[in-house]
Amino acid sequence: MSSAMPSWSDVLTHSLERLKERASTDPDAGVRDGILASWRRSYDSQALGDRLDLPYDDNLNLSTRLVRAARPVIEKVQSDIDGSPLTLILGDSTGKVLLRHSGEPCLEGQLDRALLAPGFSYAEKYAGTNGIGTALEDRSTALVRGAEHFNEQLQVFACVGVPVRDPITRRQLGVLDITTWADRAHPALTALVRQAGASIEDTLLTMSSRGARSLLEQYLRSSRAAEDRVIAVSDEAFIGSATAADRIGGLGRPELWALTVDALGNSDGAEISLMSGTEYATTLTVRAIRSPYGRLDGAIIEIPSSAPAPPVQRSSPARPRGTHQLSPLVLGPMAMVGRMAAARLPVCLVGEPGTGKRTLIQDIAMREFPGRTVVVIDCGDDDIEAKLGSVGEHLADGHPVIVRDADGLASGRLAELVSGMDLPSASGWLTFTTRTHRKSVEGAEEAEGDLAAAGIPMIALPPLRARVQDLRVLLPDMVRRLSRGRVTAVSPELLTRLIREPWPGNLAEVVELVTTMIPSATDSVLREQHLPADFGSGLRYRLTPLEWMTRDAIVESLRACDWDKARAAEALGMSRASIYRKIKAYNIEPGA
User: Fold this and answer.
1) pLDDT band at 87 (very low <50, low <70, confident <90, very high)
2) What interhelical angle do 210-223 and 187-207 show, nearest 10?
3) How far apart are CA 553 and CA 211, in angstroms?
4) Which stretch of DSSP H or E encloses residue 583?
5) Are the CB atoms for 199 and 208 separated by under 8 Å?
6) Which of 37, 62, 153, 494 has minimal Cβ neighbours within 10 Å of its Cβ?
C-alpha cells in the first residue's frame, strides 16, 4: 500500500462501484447503513483494502470457558453441515480466530489463503468489514456478503457473525461466525448461527458458578410479576430492565453493589434509602443470595410499587442519556463528588480546562440542593474579593458554592478563605475547581498546598482524550441540547471521525465545534459533511487511554528538552528509534 492514503470519498466511490458491478446477481443489492458505517471505521483504522496483512498470535488459549462451551456446539453443527460449503469459526473478544471447522475442503483451502485461520486477527481494524470484526464492533449480528467486504480478497465469501455473551454479566466474550461462498449466501445462515450462538450461551450458563446461576434463577422468579421493579446485582452482574434502572436513578452496578454490600453486612435482608434532596425518596428492599458457606454471591433488590421515576428538577441541566455507560474514569469521580455533596463536605475537582468540572459539580449540586441557587464564583472576575467575601453568607443560607479556577487566586488567599470556615457544619456546600494542563499553570502548586492544609480532598477528572469513547454517550445529548431539539441524532461516520480527534480543548472544544455545525444540518441528523472545511484530519488511528498517557509523557519530555528528541528519549528511558516511531504514530508536532 502506498504511503499516501486515498481519500475517503475515493474509497467510498470505488466500493460503491464494486457493489454495483455485482448487483446483477442480487437485484436488492445496495449499501446498508451498517455496512457503510463499517467501511468508514475500516478506512479510519487504515485497514488495507487490496491485500491482507493480519497480526498473528500462536498463543491460543483453548481452555477458556468460551471455548469449552462452544466446542461441543460447533462439533454438533459440524456433523450437520459436513459436505456442505459452510465453515464455523469461533473468535475471541478481540477478533482473534480460535477454532475453525469446515464442511468442504475447497472452501477450507480458500480460507487458508485468506488467513481466516486460528491465530490470525479478523478485528475490523485489520481485516476491514467482515462477519467477525463487524459483529464485535456493532455488538450485534453482522451479515456481510461478497462486495460488502472492505477488503477485496474477502469478496468471494459471505459471512454472518453473532456476538457470544456471558449470560450472567452480559459481557461480550467472543463471536461465532459462519462463512460460505458469496453466491451461497442465504437468510437461513443467520438463523443457524444465531441458534448456535444461543446454544453456546446456554452452555455457558450451565457452566457458570452455582452462585451466578442462583442469582439469575432468583431474578427470573422475582421478576415474573413485576419486571420493572426488580434488579439482581453482584460484583460482576447487573440484571434488570431499563425501567427498573431508571427507578433507582440510573445507578450503575459498581455503586449499587457497594451500597448493597454495606447495607447487608452479615444479614440476609436490609433496606437501602435513596434520596435526592427533599423531593424524592424511596426505600429499596434487599435480599441476599448466599452460598452454602455464607459467601455473598449477589442480591435481589425490590423497588416499591409506589416509587415513581425520580422527578426531573426543572432548574437542573439535563443529564446525558445513559450516563451510567460512561467510562469508569468518569463514573468514579462522579460517585465520589456525589458522596461529598450528600455529606456536605468540601471538595476540589482537578482537571484540564474544558473537561466539564463545573458542569459535573453543578449537576450534582442541583440534585442534592433542590430549590437552592448554585453560586458560581470565577476567580478571574474583577470583583473577586467582594464575591469571596460573600461565600460564608451563601453557605449559611444553604446554597452550594463553586469557586472556579481557584489556582488563579493570589498566593495565600485560598488558605485565608477556608481557614475561617467551619465547612462540614455549614448547611451549604463549598467546592473548588483547579486547572491542570500539559503546560504549567501558575499558582497551581500554591492552591493545592492551601487545599491540602485545609484537609479538602482533591479529585481528578481525566481529559477527554483519556476517555474519548464517552463521546458515544455525550455527543447525541449535546447535539439535542444545543439545537433545542431540532437535531436529535449523530451519524456513525461523524461519531467515528470525532473519536479519532485529540481534543486538546476537551469537552469545551467539542461544544464549540457542534455549535458551529448545527446551522448546517438540514434534517434531524448531524453528519460528517457538516464539519467545517478547515477541521483537522485527526490521528491516524484511535489511541487507547494508555497510548494517550504515553503520548502526553513524550510531549512533556519534548517540551522540557526544547524538542530535542535524543534528550527527550534519554529522559524517558526510551531508545531514539522508539521515540521517533511514536512521534510519527501519535502525530506529535512541535507546539503540541
Assistant:
1) very high
2) 110
3) 44
4) helix 576-585
5) no
6) 62
Answer yes or no: is pLDDT of 313 > 50. no
| Beta-bridge partners for 371 | none
Cell of 524: 434531524
* Stretch 351-359: mean pLDDT: 89
Which are the contacts of 249, defined by CB distance < 8 A and separation ≥ 6? 274, 276, 310
Summarize pLDDT for 103-149 with one digit per residue, the tens: 888 898 899 999 999 999 999 999 999 999 999 998 899 999 988 99
CA distance between the termini of the chain: 29
**What is the distance, to the nearest Å, from the Cα of residue 479 to the centroid of all Cα atoms in its chain?**
18
Q: How far apart are CA 320 and CA 511, in angstroms?
A: 14
Other C-beta atoms closer than 10 Å to the C-beta of 532 total 10
| CA–CA dist 146, 179 (Å, integer) | 11
Query: For residues 196 and 77, is the Cβ–Cβ distance under 8 A?
Result: yes
DSSP letter for each residue of 467-496: GGGGHHHHHHHHHHHHTTTS--EE-HHHHH
Rounded-to-integer distance, Cα 498 and Cα 502, Å: 9
Task: Write out the three cell numbers for 436.
Answer: 491542570
Output the CA–CA distances (angstroms, integers) from residue 270 to 216, 266, 301, 357, 533, in the order listed: 20, 10, 10, 35, 59
Closest to 371 (Cα-Cα) out of 249, 274, 277, 275: 277
Q: Which three cell numbers stand for residue 407?
A: 489556582
CB contact at 8 A, 285 and 204: no
Contacts of 465 (CB under 8 A, 6+ apart): 502, 503, 504, 506, 543, 548
Mean per-residue pLDDT of the chain: 80
Helical spans, DSSP H, in 500-544:
506-517
Q: Select the more confidently predicted residue: 530 or 315.
A: 530
Contacts of 100 (CB under 8 A, 6+ apart): 87, 88, 89, 90, 108, 111, 116, 117, 118
Q: What is the CA radius of gyration of the chain?
A: 27
Any residues with CB less than 8 A from the CB of 451 and at least 6 apart, and which?
348, 406, 414, 418, 432, 434, 458
Identify which has the larger pLDDT, 448 or 245. Answer: 245
DSSP string, 348-409: EEEE-TTSSHHHHHHHHHHHHSTTS--EEEETTSTTHHHHHHTHHHHHHTT-EEEEETGGGS
Calpha distance 16→7 (Å, rounded): 14
Q: To the nearest 10°, the Cα dihedral for 530, 536, 539, 543? A: -60
Neighbours of 457 (CB within 10 A): 14
What is the CA angle 23-114-190, rounded to 5? 55
Hey, what's the cell of 293?
458457606
Name the pLDDT band for 28 (thresholds 50, 70, 90).
very low
- Which cell goes with 86? 459452510
Q: Which sign does the torsion angle of CA 104, 109, 114, 118 carry? A: positive
Question: How is residue 320 annotated by DSSP?
Answer: P
Q: Report which DSSP code applies to 442.
A: T
